[in-house]
Amino acid sequence: MSPSPPSPQLRISCLTMAAAALGGAAMHLLHVPLAWMIGAMAATAALAWHRPVAVPGWARPAGLVFLGLGLGSTFTGPVLAAVTAALPVMLACGVLAILSGLVVAPLFTRLAGTDLQTGFFCAVPGGVIVMAVLAQEARASVATVTLAQTMRVLVVVLTFPPLLGWLAPHGDFSDFTGARVAVWWPGLALMAAAGLLAAWPLRLLGLANPWMLGPCALGITLAATGHLPSGVPSGLVDAAQVAMGASLGTRLTRSFLLSSRRLAIASMISAGVLSVLLTLLAVGIGRLAGLPSAAMILGMAPGGMPEMALTAKALELGVPLVLGFHLTRTVLCNLLVGRIHQWAVRLGLLG
Question: Does this entry carry the keyword Transmembrane helix (predicted)?
Answer without folding.
Answer: yes
